[in-house]
Amino acid sequence: MPSGDVFVLRGLRKIYADDTDKSYLALEGVDLRVRSGEFLCLLGASGCGKSTLLNLLGGFEKPTSGEVLYRDQKIKGPGKQRVMFFQDAGAALLPWQTVQQNVEFGLRLQGMLYSERARRAEECLQLVGLAEHRHKLPSEISGGMRQRLQIARALAVDPDVFLMDEPFGALDAITRRRMHAALLEVWQRTRRTIVFVTHDILEALMLADRVAVMSVGPGSRIARLVDVDLDRPRDPADPQLGLLFKALEVALHEASPADLVQ
Questions:
Q1: Among residues 32, 99, 131, 152, which one has the fewest Cβ atoms lying within 10 Å of its Cβ?
Q2: pTM of the predicted structure, to 2 decimals
Q3: Are 236 and 206 within 8 A, CB to CB?
Q4: What CA–CA distance (Å, rounded) separates 15 from 23?
């Protein structure tokens, strides 16, 4: 996996305008570097621009001004090396195809031979613990399994980056914890760069190498970067994690307008 910075953002600004000539300043003055192989969480309140920032990294949005670089090149649109994950895994999967066929889909588009596709799909399904469910349809597996299937399908095409927009937000607490463990196992084995959006402080602390706290808009920015220098797996009862939790609570409070935190 290449070293150095995967993403570099300089003076990033994003304005949305509608047909009535009204505009909204979503992001202002965002500066950020995302290191190769790191697990970075974007943390902030709903509506603070986390998803907008993720869409800019994915090439689904273009900045109004400033720079968004991927591997030292300006992002001009979506690319196969940057894979996006969404909260509703079911909507991202092909419901008429089996688990294995979903994993093979991107490989088939690339023209890979059947035998190689099958071998690659098997590797990825084994990695996420879905090999026994290969012949099932997405509707026949649980929500957590569908999220793992999203991960397997992404791994099959060998991307550089996972961009994850609150992918576990719709899951129950127990399934969510299991997905944290599954995602971390995949990340530790593959060392893909992950940028993960969440509004949950504990989720960020359980997963991330660094947490980027975003201020509430208009004109959201990176208010603070916090290193999470704790061994994995992490225990929510760890006093050190508790101290970081309080530090992030303070950072979120300071990054929010007074009328939102009173």
A1: 131
A2: 0.91
A3: yes
A4: 7
